[in-house]
Every structure is written in C-alpha cells, then in structure tokens.
Amino acid sequence: MPGKTALSFQPVKSRLVLFFPGFEPLGPEAHQRRFARAATKTGPHYGTSFDCGTLQVRPSGLSGFTVNAIGSEWETSSDIAIFDWSSILEHYERRPFPIRLFSGFAALLSLMFNGTLRRYLAVSWRYGFFFFYPVVLLIGCTLAGWIAAGTIGLLMESLPAKWLTGLAVSTSFAVLAARKAHLLLMMDDWAFAKNLANRSDPAIEAKRKAFRASLVSEIEAGQHDEVLVTGHSLGCVFAIDALAGIGPTAKTQASLMTVGSSLMKIALHPRAGWLVKNIAALTSTGTKWLDVQALTDVISFFRSNPAGSVGIRGKLQPKTLEIRFKFMLSPQSYRRGKYNLFRTHRQFVLAAEKPYLYSMHMIAAGPVPFDSVWAESGLPLGSGLFKQNPETGQ
C-alpha cells in the first residue's frame, strides 16, 4: 500500500495478560469496570475500538475477562486474568481503629531504626514525601490534642479534664485524617508491607503460594502469541514472586511490566532477601522486564532500577521507562490530580487522554508485541498502526 510504513513486527493476534493489582481494596469486578471505562476512553486517541467482555471464572480459578481490540487493519484478543488479593486488604481494614493506627506507626518506626528508610532515600529521595506524610498527619493530630489540653488547663485545674480533652481532640483529628487524607489506608499499607517483608503473615504466605500455582496453570493452559505479566504498586511484588517461582519449565516465555512499582519498599528491607533472590532469578533467565515510572508519583521509586538498586547485575537488566503524566492527560485532568498522591499513583492504570508512548490499555490489549514495546521503550506511535479517530478531533 503506497505511503504505508513498513512494520518491524507482526501485530499480536492473541495475548494472555496476568494482572496483579496494587494495594486497593477493590475486587475483580471493580478492576474489570475500571479497565473497561479507561479502555473506552483511551481507544479513540489510538484509532482503536475496545470491547471488554464480562467477568468470568477461568479454569485456573482466577477471575478474568477478554478484551477485543480493533484498529486499522488489525485485531487483537487479550485474555486478562486478575490475581485478586483484596481479601487480605479487607482483613487489614476490618481491624479496630487503634490497632490499624498503632500497627502502621510501629511499622514506620521499625523502618526508621533498621536502616530501611535510609536506603529508601538513597534510592529515591522523593519517596520520603510519601514515607513522612502519615508521620506528619499523626504529629498534627497529637499537636491538636496538646493545644486543646493546654487550653483546658488554663480554664480549670482538673488533670483528668486536660487528658480527656486532649485525647478526644487528637482522636477526632485522626478520624478526620482517616476520612479526608487516607491516614488509615496508609497505616494498613505500612503494616502489610512490614509483614510481607518479614513473611510473618500466614494469609500473605498462602496467597503467594496460590498465585504461583495459578500463574503456572494460566500459562500452561493458554495458546497465545505472547504472555505478559504486569503489576501495579505493591502488586509488583506478588507478580515478581509468582513469575520467578515458576522456573524455566513454563511453556511460553513470559515478559514482565511493572508500573508505579513499590518493589523497593519491600526489596530494601533487611528481611527481604527472598525477594532479592526472585529479582535475581528473573534477570538470570533473561526475562524482558520494563519498569514504568513517573516523576510526579511519590508513592513509587522514581529513578530506581528493579535490579540495579538492590545490587543485582544479571544476564538482562530491567529497562526503565520514565513517563510524564502531563503528556498523556488533558490540562484539566492533569491539574485536577497533580497534587493528589493517590490519584497520581493510580494514573498508571487509568485512561490516556492523548496519544502517548505509554498506555496500560494499549500495551496490555493492543496490537504491539511486548518485545517491541520493550525494545523501543514505549509504544511505536509512528508505526502507522494507530490512525486516530477523526471524532476525537486529534
């Protein structure tokens, strides 16, 4: 065809995506709805129509759905299996308020004293903003109670009144911080991270074992052009653990994409040698691994390398891709979410509002082989595959 750019690859016809979500109390149904909404919004900017199927239980026991993507002269079908661990998150959420608060604070203190915080800051100093955010909130709540107690002390001599007033005000501010600033979610996150690194929670250990079995079952049962394992945030730890655990017997060589990764949150802990070994195993087998990072996301480790930052020099180092959300969002959306830590962190799995070299949905369900995404560090926008929909005006 005259004027058509020659492709250096064949568009993918069939793909298996094994998705490990992050630390969000969302079940498979919510993840399927989020994917469908974001894919529908993303598609026109890449000249693509997405049809996301309903959630089904797969032979492996996992929940999943099929995505059919159609573009100019290509069609791709992607089976997406969700490695759900929301039951563990719900367990942490159901604990009493004081336990959630103090277990998270204890986890933060332990990271300060065992040297993990120092290693965090050495790898990515921006992560300090996320680490100290709940600490600042707790200090603020305590300070509010102290001021209230001091005020009561000026009005009356009753020591019990001072203590009760201070405690009531501090607690009220903590409840407000939990509702408006995600304080308890962060406390749960740190308590969970401590238990994951120490391997001290039987439920987490059982989930790791189940994920490995499910991943093997998915790969061995499938007949796909490619297999892509992808994880977001703390889900990256489970993804790496499961993929490293299957060994070299897998029928199909799987690739790995981590986005907004919290891998270093666990890997830099002194008790997480098991995870460092898993990272080393993936590099030694030559797994093609792309780690996607964003400057404005302080919940992940910008400018880190999944292997190099923990001292691993394997056969094939992971590639890192630094992206800027302002180039994939409208100015209005970017301004609205720029200063929301959690909204920014979720952007890795949300819609692209402009054609850009990164889109979770185009990489996971579009026509480009992951080998090409990995080699070119992003989607090949100039390939001619993505003829934009004139209805978008772009």
| Helix-strand sequence | EHEEEEHHHHHHHEHEHHEEHHHH
Flag low-confidence runs.
390-394
Helix/strand structural class: alpha/beta
State the helicity in percent bands: 40-55%
Please report the number of helical segments: 15
Oligomeric state of the chains? Answer: single chain
Radius of gyration: 23 Å
User: What is the overall silhouette?
Assistant: globular
- Approximate strand percentage: 5-15%
Termini separation = 24 Å
Average pLDDT score: 92
Most strands sheet: 9 strands, mixed
What's the total count of β strands? 9
Could you walk me through the main structural features you see in this protein, from its secondary elements to its overall organization?
It is built from 15 helices and nine strands. Mean pLDDT is 92; it is low at 390-394. The chain is α/β, with parallel strands linked by helices. Strand 4 (63-71) and strand 5 (74-82) form a beta hairpin. Strands 1, 2, 3, 4, 5, 6, 7, 8 and 9 form a nine-stranded mixed sheet that branches.
